[in-house]
């Protein structure tokens, strides 16, 4: 068995995201990566000129050009007559096509603006420290030039992704983003385990392909020692291996978790996972032991890989995943041998242990219904 998992781990290292088409980059803006964050069919802007856009498909971005006399308007995801789109990329003269007086943004400096008098630049300047130029309101507003996300590089994500749609992130499966009409980025995380790009709603990481876009987690970054391993703090079945400069994400085979003591993938039941990870992954049972090396008495309800709130067994009991109930502490010493989640746990005083023994199973059942109801809240998400 151990040999099988070792081999499986090695094979796992070789599995990557095979992309059908070449990666599209515009400087530090990774168009291919940003496309994985939006629903298929969404069009996103380019930054070299306003004449073209990309349609994000399941096999990557497909570039298309607007007809002569038309400019791509990323806000409406359509080509509009030149002059009607607020797009300034690649223009030698940002005032081209303008009539009257107007401030326009500087595409590579969010604090800077130009003042246009008809189609001529009549002035330029920068907003004071702590302010950025907001085209929609024609003013300097409080805020930093920080609406770039993993994948968008130096480019403000809200200047290429259309406003008013929820989209995902590539550094965390739970994170969602949203750009307002005026280009302000909102970022938050689902209560559940995943933001599903194809539905634009929060859901579960068990949904097919739900987290495929995630290329890196924000937690471990640089490292120096080749081969150093680190557990993923949230996903029991994932861990990082240092490639000499950065930590690369690796996944255990289905049904196996990363064992922090053995530093390899082992069967879920025997693995000693990192304390913060979700043991509902790859399990269809109702309740799971929380990682608990003290009393082994905390557990939570699992539904489609998502865990509900944590409950605790009465004094003198530990939670037995096989029995799906709190069990007498007398059996804990045997239980910890094959149940890595409770590795190191010890029973409390045996005098306390007898007191509540009659309540055991009923208690667990009641708590289970509550937990189930509570976990319903976590389903609604970004919508
Ligand atoms: C761009 O994104 C793709 C898809 O996430 C990734 O495979 C590729 O390594 C990225 N390229 C760069 C230069 O970041
Ligand atoms: C969650 O609660 C809502 C409203 O009470 C209900 O309509 C829905 O069916 C529930 N969903 C689940 C999965 O229990
Ligand atoms: C997420 O959970 C928090 C705390 O339980 C709650 O206040 C919030 O409304 C929830 N958000 C969603 C989108 O369900």
Automatic annotation (TrEMBL):
Keywords: Chitin-binding, Disulfide bond, Glycoprotein, Repeat, Signal. The keyword Electron transport does not apply. Residues 342-383 are annotated as: Disordered. It holds the Pfam family CBM_14. GO terms for cellular component: extracellular region. Residues 1-22 form the signal peptide. Residues 32-89, 92-142, 220-265, 277-344 form the Chitin-binding type-2 domain. The keyword Glycoprotein applies. Gene3D superfamilies: Chitin binding domain. InterPro entries: Chitin-bd_dom (IPR002557), Chitin-bd_dom_sf (IPR036508), Chitin_bind-dev_reg (IPR051940). One of its GO terms (molecular function) is chitin binding. This is Peritrophin-48-like. It comes from Drosophila albomicans. The gene is LOC117564667.
